[in-house]
Amino acid sequence: MRLFRRSLAALLVPVVLAGCQTAGGAPHAALAAPAAQAASEAHGPFVAAANPLAAEAGMAVLRRGGSAVDAAVAIQAVLGLVEPQSSGLGGGAFLMAYDAQSGTVTAYDGRETAPASATPELFYEDGKPLAFIDAVLSGRSTGAPGAVAMLALAQKDHGKLAWRDLFGDAERLARDGFVVSPRLAGMINGNSPQARTYWANTYFTKPGGGRYQAGDVLKNPTYAETVSQLAAQGPGVIYGGPIGAHIAAAVQEGPRPGGLTQADIAAYRPLRRDALCRPYQAYVVCVPPPPSSGVALLQFLGMAEQTPDLDKGATSPQAWVAFGRLQRLMYADRDRYVGDNDFVGVPIAGLLDPEYVAGRAALAPQVNGPVEAGAPAGSPPRGGDRTAEPGGTSHFVVVDARGNAVSMTTTVESIFGNGRMVDGFFLNNQLTDFSFTPQEDGHPAANAVAAGKRPRSSMTPVLILDRQGRLVGAIGSPGGSSILAYVAKALVGTLEWKLPMQDAIALPNLVVRGDMVGADTQMMSPAIRDALSAAGMPLRPNATETSGLHGAIWRNGRWDAGADPRREGVAVSDVR
């Protein structure tokens, strides 16, 4: 077994269009295979995840002959226990699946939905929007959870083992206890209001008093019983069953009870969607369609190919300035136009049209501050966006022995979701990912609240294929709205700047969205800091969730893989 620790797996590379759809619905013509592609086909067992216990649970499934999706079920079950600040059974997710036999890429949408009672003024009180943290802590913030239903759908399509056999590690760890990691301990003892709710205080206070610290053993017998029921009875125990009733009851408690009902949860349906794919250099990058923001990442990559300053490399101030300027253009369009495409017309084809992308890229040299959204073909008038999107997310990658792969980003939205618990897990506050202001200048916001609607997400799990449709990589990250910047940095670092994978992931983060500029400031050279400041990007410490990139790229017959040095993850491979 090969173990990669803290060596960012930036799978910023190839993705094929087999099974993917372009913005217009037609696949791109295949290009020559990239030189980096080894003759052997990429295969596992391989897992990269944010916690060693979750990674090992996934590897155990793969070693028993399970599929990549089987392993994803086991990983999520363990992450919900050992990393509850980031994801869980009460949250949502996007999953990208690669089928090696058919060469197809499928996007699974497990984003939460607003209850039937939701209105555009969901987060209004006394005629004005609530303070953001008050909205987060309220019952109004919780949508019908989608992660478990989505995994069940994907496992039905791609599973090899029985559903009931995928939860053993999670049940054992919950019943016998697990060692609290330093990062979890920091969240438990931090200042987040969600960590100080009645529910969180009850869970995180030791029997003898005091809160759990790093190295303590934390048991969650209630969670053990929950995953035991989920294994035996399937997702129906949540969707229409007693756990769903418990979720609805907790949401309807004060302060500010929410409108989510057991019927809303029972009516939830995960979606199987065509992946959205576009070429980048010698590769093709595939992402989920809206309400994921993957279209924005593809637009960024298209602009990057037409920005010569990016060619100057990782030590070039001009390259970093170009990187920041392209982000401003990307986020302006994303924030204005991306929402739930089943409710609003997202101009996907227009945003990715080569002429439009070239026109936006041509603006970059003059961008020295916030920019307006463009006007891509098919874009209706849209109001300004007032969406806040804090972090509380995780990403993992799995490849099985047959070469099937999963890239999955999963979340409860903020740290410990809204701080409410049922049956051993936290509930999401995903509905605060909607725009609190439903319209501006008489035009509706694309991401306004509506009954049954899925809030826009920055989660962008990536699969990378070569131009023959063969898997060569996968990558993704947590980070709230900064996810797009984190993944873009890794892709540029590896594919454009030709850095080793570890070096590309370890590059300082730079996030430029409107007038918000955040960075790993102390990691930037004085020359780069000065250049960014002169271009309207004065650096401040990054106030958003830090990156947690996980993944790998297939090189020379093995996985060049790792986990973000900013987190506690690992990448594990049995491939020799």
What does this molecule look like?
With about 575 residues, the chain is of the alpha+beta class. Helix content is about 30%, strand content about 20%. It is built from 17 helices and 24 strands. The strands form 7 sheets. The protein has an 8-stranded antiparallel β-sheet, covered by helices on one side. A 6-stranded antiparallel β-sheet has the order 10-11-18-19-22-23, covered by helices on one side. A two-stranded antiparallel ribbon has the order 5-6. A hairpin with a 2-residue loop joins strand 20 and strand 21. The model is unreliable at about 1-20 and about 20-40 (pLDDT under 50).
Structural shape: globular
- In total, the number of strands is 24
**Strands side by side in the biggest sheet:** 1-24-2-12-13-3-4-9
Mean pLDDT: 90
Helix coverage percent of residues? 25-40%
Layout of helices and strands:
Layout (H helix, E strand, L loop, with lengths): L1 E4 L40 E4 L2 H12 L4 H15 L9 E8 L4 E7 L13 E2 L2 E2 L2 H6 L9 H12 L9 H9 L1 E2 L2 H7 L9 H7 L12 E2 L2 H13 L8 H10 L10 H5 L4 E4 L1 E5 L2 E5 L6 H11 L12 H21 L10 H5 L1 H10 L29 E7 L5 E7 L9 E2 L2 E2 L12 E2 L2 E2 L17 E4 L5 E6 L6 H14 L4 H6 L3 E4 L2 E4 L6 H9 L15 E6 L2 E6 L6 E4 L3
Antiparallel strand pairs: 1-24, 2-12, 2-24, 3-4, 3-13, 4-9, 5-6, 7-8, 10-11, 11-18, 12-13, 14-15, 16-17, 18-19, 19-22, 20-21, 22-23
Helix pairs in contact: 1-2, 2-4, 2-5, 5-8, 11-12, 11-14, 11-15, 12-17
